[in-house]
Amino acid sequence: MPRRDREKLRRAGSRIAGLEATESVCPYCAVGCAQVVYQRDGRLVDIEGNPRSPINEGTLCPKGSASRQLVEQPGRLTKVRYRRPGGTEWEDLELERAMDMIAERVIAARESGWQERDEEGRRVDRTLGFAHLGGATLDNEENYLIKKLFTAMGAVQIENQARI
């Protein structure tokens, strides 16, 4: 490399100098590869594999390498979209309204699937009206809280597909 180019490269400095780094987990599969998310002034600049991770040692698969596109994709939905039963058109909902609708449906499913006693007359106090399947990006703490929440609501079908 010519001396002039080396000097120019030295003056340029680090690609990530001055950026805020946040450790994260890739959102795609059950491996749980660690990522470092770089931002400046609240704006995403780059995402790369975390070399300190014993899982992926800084490497990312093609999907993980494209994580930035997941966030910055121009067609990404940023509002709650809802299509009423039997409807043909989507409508925007306020987040609070959507959350209320979900809560109402969970309560209705819990009540409609409630079992006080099983077929042999034993007290079970459970619901078979809903279940929970966790994703690969949930950590142990989140899974613990989900298990507590769904158990408190009477659910018995609680699973997580993560392998780490």
Explain the overall architecture.
By secondary structure, this protein is of the alpha+beta class. 31% of the residues lie in helices and 25% in strands. It has helices at residues 3-12, 62-65, 67-72, 95-112, 140-152, and strands at 20-25, 34-40, 43-49, 80-82, 91-93, 114-117, 123-127, 132-134, 158-160. The strands form four sheets. The protein has a three-stranded antiparallel β-sheet. Strands 4-5 form a two-stranded antiparallel sheet. A two-stranded antiparallel sheet has the order 6-7. β2 (34-40) and β3 form a beta hairpin.
Q: State the strand order across the main sheet.
A: 1-2-3
Low-pLDDT stretches are none
Strand runs, count: 9
Structural class: alpha+beta
Give the helices and strands, then pairings.
Layout: H1 3-12, E1 20-25, E2 34-40, E3 43-49, H2 62-65, H3 67-72, E4 80-82, E5 91-93, H4 95-112, E6 114-117, E7 123-127, E8 132-134, H5 140-152, E9 158-160
Parallel strand pairs: 8-9
Antiparallel strand pairs: 1-2, 2-3, 4-5, 6-7
